[in-house]
């Protein structure tokens, strides 16, 4: 073996050990880290989604007052939101370092089933910024609760959409043979859901360092700004993302977001 190849081989073999002994804030060699800025209109939900969120799905003859509230809330969101995200590629083989960081996450959940079969993994966090959340709080406090509710609904739906957009961005970063393969899809999964204990945020934040884009974590694992989103972006063949939500913790899950997320993934081009 030529000397340069031998050196490369030794470096490759020693890399995991080296990485583990390095300080956690070191970016892994060859693993991409990217900050993405979105336009407010890219993350904004549709009016129909907002109305559905407010219990007015498909309602005919919507009062002009409601239409006006929806329009005003979208206008505020467009003025105030500064959506952005950060992602950091991570070795699939080391997902447990983060998932099982403190031993509180369930070994029987979708993440331990899905991630080992993935062809790509990244850590991510994304936010709308402080301003749209502060504005909805201000509206509630100032007696304009109806507009506050509308803006709050837009904020919540936009945060969920940010997860989808980050997964799409991760797909674009994959090697061409994977990103062009229609069978490969990326999904997002986060601490505090589906068996991944909320305290997993600590390890995730320690390794990802989303403070770089203004996302922080409190000692009780609350992300600031609120309505931010974080977790894994997982790329793999569509079938690995399919599961039946009948894990023990699903009995107390009211949101059941996995069903909607799976449906969106199945429909994604
Ligand atoms: S039902 Fe809830 S807890 Fe269970 S997998 Fe779906 S989103 Fe997760």
Order of helices and strands: HEHHHEHHEHHHEHEEEH
- Shape annotation: globular
Question: Major sheet, described briefly?
Answer: 5 strands, antiparallel
Widest beta sheet: strand line-up:
1-2-3-7-4
Classify the helix fraction into a percent range. Answer: 40-55%
* N-C termini distance: 45 Å
Q: Helical region count? A: 11
Number of self-contained structural domains: 1
Content of β-strand: 5-15%
In round numbers, the mean pLDDT is 88
Radius of gyration: 20 Å
Q: Catalogue the ligands.
A: iron/sulfur cluster
Low-pLDDT ranges:
1-26
Describe this structure in words.
- The chain is α+β, with helices and mostly antiparallel strands.
- The protein has one domain (3-44, 86-129, 159-267).
- Helix content is 45%, strand content 14%.
- The chain has helices spanning 3-21, 40-43, 47-53, 64-80, 95-99, 110-114, 131-141, 145-173, 176-179, 200-208, 257-267; strands at residues 33-37, 84-89, 120-127, 184-189, 216-217, 223-224, 229-237.
- The protein has a 5-stranded antiparallel sheet with strand order 1-2-3-7-4, sandwiched between helices. A two-stranded antiparallel ribbon has the order 5-6.
- The termini are far apart.
- Mean pLDDT is 88; it is low at 1-26.
- Residues 110, 193-194, 245, 247, 249-250, 253, 256-258 line the site of iron/sulfur cluster (SF4).
């Amino acid at each position: 073996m030529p000397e340069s190849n031998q050196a490369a081989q030794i470096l490759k073999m020693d890399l995991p050990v080296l990485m583990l002994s390095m300080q956690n804030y070191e970016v892994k060699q060859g693993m991409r880290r990217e900050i993405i800025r979105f336009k407010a209109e890219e993350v904004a939900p549709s009016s129909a989604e907002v109305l559905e969120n407010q219990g007015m799905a498909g309602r005919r003859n919507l009062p002009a007052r409601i239409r006006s509230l929806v329009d005003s809330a979208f206008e505020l969101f467009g003025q105030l939101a500064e959506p952005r995200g950060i992602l950091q590629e991570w070795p699939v083989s080391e997902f447990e370092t983060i998932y099982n960081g403190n031993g509180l996450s369930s070994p029987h959940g979708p993440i331990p089933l899905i991630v080992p079969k993935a062809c790509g993994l990244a850590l991510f966090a994304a936010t709308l910024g402080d301003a749209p959340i502060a504005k909805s709080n201000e509206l509630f406090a100032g007696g304009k609760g109806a507009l506050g509710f509308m803006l709050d609904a837009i904020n919540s739906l936009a945060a969920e959409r940010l997860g989808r957009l980050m997964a799409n961005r991760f797909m674009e970063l994959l090697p061409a043979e994977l990103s062009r393969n229609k069978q490969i899809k990326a999904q997002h999964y986060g601490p505090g859901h589906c068996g991944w204990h909320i305290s997993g945020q600590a390890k995730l934040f320690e390794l990802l360092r989303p403070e770089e884009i203004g996302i922080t974590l409190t000692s009780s694992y609350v992300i600031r700004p609120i309505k931010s989103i974080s977790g894994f972006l997982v790329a793999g063949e569509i079938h690995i993302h399919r599961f039946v939500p009948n894990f023990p913790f699903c009995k107390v899950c009211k949101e059941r977001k996995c069903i909607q997320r799976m449906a969106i993934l199945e429909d994604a081009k």
